[in-house]
Prior knowledge:
Strand order of the largest sheet: 1-5-4-3-2
Largest sheet: 5 strands, mixed
Helix content: 25-40%
Radius of gyration: 12 Å
CATH topology: YaeB-like fold
CATH architecture: 2-Layer Sandwich
Strand content: 35-45%
Order of helices and strands: EHHEEEE
Number of helices: 2
CATH superfamily: RelE-like
Number of strands: 5
Amino acid sequence: MKTRTTPHFDRAFLKFSAQVRRIYNKQVSFLMIDIRHPSLRAKKYDEAAGIWQMRVTSNVRAYFLIRGGVYIFLDIEKHRD
Protein backbone atom coordinates (compact mmCIF):
# COMPACT_ATOMS: atom_id res chain seq x y z
CA MET A 1 0.00 0.00 0.00
CA LYS A 2 1.00 3.59 -0.58
CA THR A 3 -0.21 6.88 0.90
CA ARG A 4 -1.30 10.13 -0.65
CA THR A 5 -2.68 13.32 0.86
CA THR A 6 -5.08 15.95 -0.40
CA PRO A 7 -4.32 19.68 -0.32
CA HIS A 8 -6.96 20.06 2.40
CA PHE A 9 -5.20 17.43 4.52
CA ASP A 10 -1.82 19.14 3.98
CA ARG A 11 -3.15 22.49 5.21
CA ALA A 12 -4.82 20.93 8.26
CA PHE A 13 -1.72 18.83 9.05
CA LEU A 14 0.55 21.89 9.23
CA LYS A 15 -1.64 23.39 11.97
CA PHE A 16 -0.66 20.61 14.37
CA SER A 17 2.43 20.59 16.57
CA ALA A 18 5.61 18.81 15.54
CA GLN A 19 4.87 16.19 18.19
CA VAL A 20 1.44 15.36 16.73
CA ARG A 21 2.95 15.24 13.22
CA ARG A 22 5.58 12.74 14.43
CA ILE A 23 2.90 10.59 16.06
CA TYR A 24 0.85 10.72 12.85
CA ASN A 25 3.83 9.42 10.88
CA LYS A 26 4.28 6.59 13.39
CA GLN A 27 0.59 5.70 13.13
CA VAL A 28 0.77 5.68 9.33
CA SER A 29 3.68 3.24 9.55
CA PHE A 30 1.42 0.95 11.63
CA LEU A 31 -1.36 1.40 9.06
CA MET A 32 0.99 0.29 6.28
CA ILE A 33 1.66 -2.94 8.19
CA ASP A 34 -1.86 -3.72 9.41
CA ILE A 35 -5.05 -1.63 9.32
CA ARG A 36 -6.20 -3.61 12.37
CA HIS A 37 -3.25 -2.46 14.52
CA PRO A 38 -4.74 -1.84 18.00
CA SER A 39 -3.38 1.71 18.43
CA LEU A 40 -5.08 2.87 15.21
CA ARG A 41 -8.59 1.89 16.20
CA ALA A 42 -9.36 2.21 12.48
CA LYS A 43 -13.01 1.98 11.53
CA LYS A 44 -15.37 2.96 8.77
CA TYR A 45 -16.44 6.52 9.46
CA ASP A 46 -18.83 6.99 6.53
CA GLU A 47 -19.83 3.69 4.97
CA ALA A 48 -21.58 5.26 1.96
CA ALA A 49 -18.59 7.45 1.04
CA GLY A 50 -16.02 4.78 1.96
CA ILE A 51 -14.26 7.08 4.44
CA TRP A 52 -12.23 5.54 7.23
CA GLN A 53 -11.12 7.08 10.52
CA MET A 54 -7.94 6.30 12.45
CA ARG A 55 -6.70 7.48 15.79
CA VAL A 56 -3.56 9.63 15.80
CA THR A 57 -3.65 10.65 19.48
CA SER A 58 -6.36 10.47 22.10
CA ASN A 59 -7.92 13.62 20.67
CA VAL A 60 -6.78 13.73 17.02
CA ARG A 61 -8.26 11.66 14.17
CA ALA A 62 -7.24 11.26 10.54
CA TYR A 63 -9.74 10.44 7.79
CA PHE A 64 -8.87 8.52 4.65
CA LEU A 65 -10.12 6.56 1.65
CA ILE A 66 -8.71 3.31 0.31
CA ARG A 67 -8.53 3.34 -3.49
CA GLY A 68 -6.57 0.94 -5.66
CA GLY A 69 -3.96 0.08 -3.04
CA VAL A 70 -3.54 3.70 -1.91
CA TYR A 71 -4.52 5.30 1.39
CA ILE A 72 -5.72 8.80 0.47
CA PHE A 73 -5.73 11.06 3.52
CA LEU A 74 -8.53 13.61 3.36
CA ASP A 75 -8.46 15.38 6.71
CA ILE A 76 -6.94 15.45 10.17
CA GLU A 77 -8.68 17.18 13.04
CA LYS A 78 -9.22 17.30 16.76
CA HIS A 79 -11.70 14.67 17.83
CA ARG A 80 -15.07 15.93 18.96
CA ASP A 81 -16.21 14.34 22.21
